[in-house]
């Protein structure tokens, strides 16, 4: 079994825990005793923050809508479609026709990069996330 | 957060979780802390058991109430009146911190004038709180040496959310409960990285570190740092504006990363309509959420356990997280997906790791300047502002001066909820979360232990109302607003006062945001989730 330092993915407390893994599978979490936020404790959600990781419902392939239905596709096709459609709509209707919703669940680095993409690649400040909600 | 930024110059929790142990008094308003922020709730309970005083103001009799010396059960949406009333008492009885007001603040005379009419008797009529209780709360809060004001979405999710926040700031400044350990105005953030998403510029008006998009010097700085010309210098659309623009056809494409607006946004049917009206919708997520099911392209992402990076908690503490397992199937970490999309769109992005991105953040974001991987690895995180690699981080803000210099009193008048109950829609619906589920349920509802504890949606209704309507505990009933109807089981409980019902937005089977009122705060654009008019009927 190995232990990996991490942070609980639920509320804004930021409780620190170790993810316990057996091979490729997450099997539990263990609160870090020394952390000043949670001091070795977790709530019911925190203690169970490993279960959904292994859910059979996880998305494992990019999907694309064809004839009205979402079907599996390759990363290359998915990325090319996203980049092309966004660029085309942006150049046809202006950057104001594009919107970007960032996430309160992903890392700082990913939030930074997402807003950088919206602003530098697609030239719009219409980027927001669910802080208001 | 706009309210705090206007008053203090910085929109974040002023103090730290560790300081909860040293406070003498907690004034908790609009936060069901033990359910939403359980570990902070536990801190408050420990402090109370150690002798601290707790005052709770909430329309619901939340679990913290059993630890409180004083419970102020205000009518929904009357927070400004309640706190204006407290300030009325504090000023009349000269209980305010005269030195703090004189040396650290501006606008006191206007505040005095505004709150003068909010006598405890007037406030009793508006809020339902007995005048004597309000006076007692005011005296205790003002009289404490170190008092922490704690709030959450019960304050912000109103059409008057910004006014509510400004009023919290007024109350804390008036009594000098700011700029010291164990004091402050402490908004508790609802998501693990909502603070970080704001800090990193996931907002239409600012780059990372709250640097304004309409400031030419800032624009030049980012143009150079990113090697790009033609950055947008107008404030962009908020999520609320985007939904409106999608309905009118002005917004044609939307890229959603890790959000589920169909369940989380007000007036859900309209959101679904807005998203369906788009020419192109991309959703990047770990599950096929209700929103992802509408997308033209769905990009499978890694979850927190499958990637490395940093997160910023509610007390501005940046902490490190490492990768424990590989993402399932072909799922990829979000930053890699972003790099590929940007590069394919003609703006090249190449990073070898999350840490290389963090280095770039350090160089362009003054408050994160000294927050490096090496330092995070060694300790328990760093609280911003942390401008350089020798800086220890900042436990509490506004020590000798406010971020903007003097703190500004921003007095507000009470305004009732936008859609008060009437003869037909005679109940007030309020919404929130429960202990064992989270947000739209995409993660917790796939967690057996949690789903077992709270497997289905229920709504709370007062025993007297339930009796009158012939609804028994655990029976099905229908809640209807002007925008839609949902069916779910009743929980008959005096936790809610008469003529108020409460439910959560965790369950797609009873999506409460079909009912909620999309009217929003004019500044923060936060919708009024906490109060709308509904009617209730038993389903025979």
Protein model, in words:
The complex is a heterodimer of chains A (133) and B (540). Chain A is an alpha+beta fold and 133 residues long. Chain A has two domains: 53 residues, N-terminal domain of TfIIb (Single Sheet); 70 residues, no CATH class. In chain A, strand 2 and strand 3 form a beta hairpin. A six-stranded mixed barrel of chain B has the order 16-20-17-19-18-23. Chain B is built from 20 helices and 23 strands. Chain B folds into three domains: 187 residues, Dimethylsulfoxide Reductase, domain 2 (3-Layer(aba) Sandwich), CATH 3.40.228; 190 residues, Rossmann fold, CATH 3.40.50; 112 residues, Barwin-like endoglucanases (Beta Barrel). In chain B, helix 1 runs parallel beside helix 10. Chain B is an alpha/beta fold and 540 residues long. Classes of the chains: A alpha+beta (133), B alpha/beta (540).
Report the end-to-end length of chain B measured between terminal Cα atoms. Answer: 45 Å
Question: Mind telling me the C-alpha Rg of chain B?
Answer: 24 Å
Characterize the overall form of chain B.
globular
Would you identify the regions of chain A where 5 or more consecutive residues have pLDDT less than 50?
none
Structural category of chain A: alpha+beta
Evaluate the radius of gyration of chain A. 19 Å
Remind me, CATH topology of the largest domain in chain B? Rossmann fold
What percent of residues of chain A are in strands? 25-35%
Structural class designation of chain B = alpha/beta
Q: Average pLDDT value of chain A?
A: 95
Secondary-structure element order of chain A, as H and E? EEEHEEHEHE
- Give the total of domains of chain A: 2
Total helical elements of chain B? 20
Number of domains of chain B: 3
Helix content estimate of chain B: 25-40%
Distance between the termini of chain A: 39 Å
Outline of chain A = extended
> Which stretches of chain B are low in confidence, meaning pLDDT under 50 for 5 or more residues running?
none
What topology, given as strand order, has the largest sheet of chain B?
16-20-17-19-18-23
The biggest beta sheet of chain A reads: 3 strands, antiparallel
């Amino acid at each position: 079994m190995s232990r990996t330092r991490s942070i609980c993915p639920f509320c804004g407390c930021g409780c620190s825990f170790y993810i316990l893994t057996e091979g490729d599978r997450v099997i539990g979490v263990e609160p870090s005793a020394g952390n000043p936020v949670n001091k070795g404790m977790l709530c019911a959600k925190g203690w169970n923050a490993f279960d959904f990781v292994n859910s059979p419902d996880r998305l494992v392939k990019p999907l694309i809508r064809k004839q009205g239905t979402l079907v599996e596709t390759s990363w290359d096709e998915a990325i090319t479609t996203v980049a092309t459609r966004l660029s085309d709509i942006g150049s046809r209707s202006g950057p104001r026709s594009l919107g970007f919703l960032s996430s309160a669940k992903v890392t700082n680095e990913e939030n930074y990069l997402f807003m950088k993409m919206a602003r530098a690649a697609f030239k719009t400040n219409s980027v927001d996330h669910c802080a208001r909600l | 957060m706009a309210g705090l930024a206007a008053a203090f110059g910085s929109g974040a929790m002023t103090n730290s979780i560790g300081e909860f142990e040293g406070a003498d008094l907690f004034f908790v308003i609009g936060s069901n802390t033990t359910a939403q922020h359980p570990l902070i709730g536990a801190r408050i309970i420990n402090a109370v058991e150690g002798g601290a005083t707790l005052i709770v103001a909430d329309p619901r009799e939340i679990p913290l109430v059993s630890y409180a010396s004083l419970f102020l059960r205000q009518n929904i949406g009357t927070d400004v009146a309640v706190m204006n009333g407290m300030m009325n008492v504090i000023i009349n009885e000269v209980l305010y911190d005269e030195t703090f007001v004189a040396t650290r603040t501006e606008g006191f005379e206007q505040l005095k004038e505004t709150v003068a009419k909010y006598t405890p008797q007037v406030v009793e009529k508006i809020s339902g709180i007995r005048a004597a209780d309000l006076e007692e709360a005011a005296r205790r809060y003002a009289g404490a040496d170190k008092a922490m004001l704690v709030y959450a979405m019960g304050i912000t999710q109103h059409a008057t959310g910004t006014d509510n926040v400004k009023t919290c700031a007024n109350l804390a400044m008036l009594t000098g409960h700011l700029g010291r350990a164990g004091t402050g105005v402490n908004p508790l953030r609802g998501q693990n990285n909502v603070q970080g998403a704001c800090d990193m510029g996931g907002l239409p008006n600012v780059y990372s570190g709250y640097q304004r998009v309409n400031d030419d010097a800032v624009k030049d700085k980012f143009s150079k740092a990113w090697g790009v010309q033609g950055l947008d210098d107008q404030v962009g659309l908020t999520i609320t504006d985007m939904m409106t623009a999608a309905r009118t056809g002005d917004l044609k494409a939307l890229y959603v990363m890790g959000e589920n607006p169909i369940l989380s946004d007000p007036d859900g049917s309209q959101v679904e309509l807005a998203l369906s009206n788009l020419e192109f919708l991309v959703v990047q997520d770990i599950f096929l959420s209700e929103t992802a099911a509408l997308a033209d392209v769905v990009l499978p992402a890694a979850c927190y356990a499958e990637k490395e990076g940093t997160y910023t908690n509610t007390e501005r503490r940046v902490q490190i997280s490492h990768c424990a397992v590989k993402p399932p199937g072909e799922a990829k970490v979000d930053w890699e997906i972003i790099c590929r999309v940007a590069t394919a769109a003609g703006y090249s992005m190449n990073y070898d790791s999350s840490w290389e991105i963090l280095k770039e953040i350090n160089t362009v974001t003054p408050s994160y300047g000294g927050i490096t991987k090496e330092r995070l690895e060694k300790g328990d995180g760093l609280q911003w502002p942390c401008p350089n690699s020798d800086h220890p981080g900042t436990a509490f803000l506004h020590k000798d001066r406010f971020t903007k210099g003097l703190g500004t009193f921003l007095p507000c008048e009470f305004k009732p909820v936008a859609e008060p109950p009437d003869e037909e829609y005679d109940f007030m619906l309020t919404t929130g979360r429960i202990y064992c589920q989270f947000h739209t349920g995409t993660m917790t509802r796939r967690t057996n232990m949690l789903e077992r504890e709270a497997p289905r949606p229920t709504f709370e209704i007062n025993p007297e109302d339930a009796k009158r309507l012939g609804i028994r505990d655990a029976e099905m009933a229908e809640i209807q607003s002007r925008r839609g109807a949902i069916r779910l089981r009743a929980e008959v409980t005096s936790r809610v006062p008469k003529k108020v019902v409460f439910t959560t937005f965790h369950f797609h089977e009873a999506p409460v945001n079909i009912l909620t009122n999309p009217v929003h705060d004019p500044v923060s654009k936060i919708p009024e989730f906490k109060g709308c008019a509904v009617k209730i009927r038993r389903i025979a």
